[in-house]
Amino acid sequence: MDASRPDRSSVEANVISFELSEPDVELYEAARRLLLSAHHSENHRVAAAMRGGSGAIYLGLHLGSKRLNVCAESSALANARMAQEASIHSVVAVSMDGLGQPQVTNPCGLCRELLRTYGPETTVLVDAGGEVGKVHVTGLLPYPWMRAAETEWDTLPPRAQETAT
Asked: What percent of the chain has pLDDT over 70?
């Protein structure tokens, strides 16, 4: 399957699951520990943990300044790629809640695009209205941004539906 095109034959790819495993919790705990040790309200607001296909965990930290922010998920992804990790299995990002405790936070649009590009089989732990669940990355970004020349298909111009009179 082309990772850039939505899989219309598999609805289950976009279904959230609340059945978390011990490795999911371990991934969350790794991100949580990093955020607790490195949190800064402007410079390091989010931490991420990413499990590669090998089972190794890679950490990432948000880097912020007045004009630029680098997301925690992208720095974790860079760490995984530098370690020659062949695939990404799962990822979680955490940010501080109002009481100063790490909680799962959902990836921004840029991170969703990066995760889908570099880990088309990745599952993402998400905040689903206060409960942590996991979803396949295609459920987060079913229609990714692409240039027309990058697709394997031609898109027809939009047409209004004709109404019967």
From this structure: 89
**Beta carbons within 8 Å of 21's beta carbon, 6+ residues apart:** none
Q: Which of 83, 79, 60, 73 is nearest to 122 (CA)?
A: 73
- Are the CB atoms for 40 and 69 separated by under 8 Å? no
104 CB-side CA count, 13 A:
19
pLDDT in tens, 49-83: 999 999 999 999 999 888 889 999 999 999 999 99
How far is it, in rounded angstroms, from Cα 109 to Cα 42? Answer: 20
**3-state SS track over 1-63:** CCCCCCCCCCHHHHCCECCCCHHHHHHHHHHHHHHHHHCECCCECEEEEEEECCCCEEEEECE
Residues 142, 146, 149: CA angle, nearest 5 degrees: 135
**Do the beta carbons of residue 113 and residue 102 sit within 8 Å?**
no
Q: Is the whole-model pTM more than 0.85?
A: no
- Residue 106's SS3 state is coil
* Sequence letter at residue 123: T
Residue found under tokens 């229609």: 143
